[in-house]
């Protein structure tokens, strides 16, 4: 009989599904042999089908007529969660679109399991929404509603850094006091956990979790800041009006730089405003570029170029975002120093949250024996430097950057439903 449970890490940028097979946690292949699935949905207007992951992004970048949705997790707990968006002649709620994505993950889980799966542990950040308990509870409720609508009957939640700790614990040979760092696309989460081979067998781990904190800062925030500082000026951001009395309105530039808000620029009302802004602009040529980017529905592709540049700066000192649209061609040079200056304030807030987590645990930094890193944003050199400087004596373990949480959720699901 198949094991009718699994763990789902629905991420801002990427998602995974974990299962237990032959007594060990592993990830389900979600797209071909790939265990990670970009959290993207594409409504293809040409064939009428809905696609997910790399196929969704590929169709969009191949200029197939349709609608791409990314960073959907970021709408949970926000005002956008209750809104609908137009997909051809239909109005579809953002929570329903999240449901479609989770339903696709459930299909892959059931194919792997060989039958229906109704029990699931869903990962969640320590805080969906910073400093707002009501909005945070609402976000979890919205995610649960989306999962229940797809056929999951028994739904539990686990903090993502705790799930990462459960995965890390499978590899430890002695007791450790571990600082778990999970920096993903939308949130950065931290936990201080006692782990050991003996503790791994215990049913209740509450006393081993000394502290958990999170902050709503992640990779998509760094993308947004990088785009606003280095790319949007090439499209007219911060440029003056003809009379020199003020700068052009900032809101449309910020929307175009923000993954989950890009579609808000693709409306007739926005285009009317943009043409008015162009008329008032001292640099109408720059606003023309912006308008052409919108007309070509190039916003998500531009955001992907910014994300690619950010990743390239992990190993390089400089790169560029090159847009080759015939009527909106430009190149924005970005250095690693430029990236670090742009995101320094947010990384400072992340580091302060780590310090507070250590204080909450009532331990000294020197008491922490291991730091376990997971999540794509831990690869950013400035983030890694700032965090590791807080616990200089700890050994550093780099986990599966995108898979540790999904694996840990499978272990938690076994404990809860197995």
Structure notes:
39% of the residues lie in helices and 24% in strands. It has 418 residues and is an alpha+beta fold. It folds into three domains: 5-160 and 406-417, 2-Layer Sandwich (Nucleotidyltransferase, domain 5); 174-219 and 344-398, ATPase, nucleotide binding domain (Nucleotidyltransferase, domain 5, 2-Layer Sandwich), CATH 3.30.420.40; 220-340, no CATH class. The protein has twelve helices and 18 strands.
Name the CATH homologous superfamily of the largest domain.
ATPase, nucleotide binding domain
Number of domains: 3
CATH architecture of the largest domain: 2-Layer Sandwich
**What's the total count of β strands?**
18
Q: What's the SSE pattern? A: EEEEEEHEEEHEHEHEEEHHHHHEEHEHEH
Mass-distribution shape: globular
Uncertain segments:
none
Radius of gyration: 22 Å
Assembly level = single chain
Indicate the CATH class of the largest domain: Alpha Beta
Strand content: 15-25%
Task: For the record, give the distance between the C-alpha atoms at the N and C termini, rounded to a whole number.
Answer: 12 Å
Secondary-structure-based class equals alpha+beta
Number of helices: 12
CATH topology-level fold name of the largest domain: Nucleotidyltransferase, domain 5
The main β sheet shows up as: 6 strands, mixed
Mean pLDDT: 93
